[in-house]
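Chapter summary example: a protein plus iron/sulfur cluster.
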Amino acid sequence: MAFSVTSSSAAIYGSGFSRSSSSSDLKVPQIGSFRLANFHATVNLSKKRCAVKPVNAEPKRNDSLLPQAASISAPEVLEKVEAEDFEQLAKELDNASPLEIMDKALEKFGNDVAIAFSGAEDVALIEYAKLTGRPFRVFSLDTGRLNPETYRFFDEVEKHYGIRIEYMFPDAVEVQALVRSKGLFSFYEDGHQECCRVRKVRPLRRALEGLRAWITGQRKDQSPGTRSEVPVVQVDPVFEGLDGGVGSLVKWNPVANVDGIDIWNFLRAMNVPVNSLHSQGFVSVGCEPCTRPVLPGQHEREGRWWWEDAKAKECGLHKGNLKQDSAAQLNGNGNGNGNGAAAHTDIFNSQSLVTLSRAGIENLTRLENRKEPWIVVLYAPWCPYCQAMEESYVALAEKLAGSGVKVAKFRADGEPKEYAQKELQLGSFPTILFFPKHSAKPIKYASEKRDVDSLMAFVNALR
Ligand code: SF4
């Protein structure tokens, strides 16, 4: 592995993006072909003769990632078939530096891998790629809803690295249909998934269909709920690559094990340009209507889709991070009973907690004047986010025992789910409601902070 930190490396990586460069400018070690062996971890990497025309040999930019790239997969003579166990490779690289992981990704996949750049601190990936001295490609999703600062930052990055970012745009007809039928801000009404599907997920899918691997800036510390198990490399569990089918795409996450603070230390040390939104309090950078600055102490993902519950905070680009039940919920087709609900023992077990039946919660919603206020969690025992808040909710019940505030739980998956969605503001699990003394209408707890102090502050503000 030869890492280059000299200025001469710029000439090498820069050539990778110049469509006018000759193919010999690029080090494209092999064009791989993946076939499923064990789709969880192993794909067959078929090393083919490089008689194939390199994607970057064409003079125009539209030959970049995408459907056109599929044209390079013309039948080739297989010289060697080598099974690659990416689960094993992930273990081997788990303690490797991001630079080593990046180098491995570029070495293995050459022109068939590209860095997914969001316009945020994942610019570190581009810096790492530059430092390897190898040619590399960068693509980005232009949703049409990004902040002006992000567009300027894209331009700055292109100039700084001497590259052209390969932008992916949403399908104009799909955007038009969505906006004409539901308006420009439908995501505030019925969730972000539909808009993200049109503006992000489908363009991403198109991009990935022209690749055999992609490189992301996912980190474990970004979202403890959904990203805590991200490996440094994996067979992509969701998207398909150039050869199609499950297991045809490899996903590299070189900074999976790096903390956000260390990414920033690296960016400063290397004097890398950064998005000016960061200096305005934005930690996470996404679409303008769906991203906001966070306060000190707030987690960065709290700045995304803040009007929704934590579970849904993957826009679909990394949906494979969600556990099966959570993914089903995200897709709107989970009822909580189909994926082993019966196998999960009940949660929130405490003598200080009241277990409400359907009749019990219906009665609660009918009372205009209660003797005492109630706080109720709508939950599903299989839901990891409910499981994660069990300790603090039980502690809350014990703190409030005898205080005049009742603490209760209502299991709202399965058959009662529809009722809970219609009548109890259930969006996703867990949903926490406060029933004040003198009003039938419950107040929904809007924050994702589910520690006992935050819940107590909510109760004390309303009791
Ligand atoms: Fe649409 Fe918001 Fe998703 Fe961007 S982040 S695609 S604006 S819902």
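Key point: The two ends are 63 Å apart (CA to CA).
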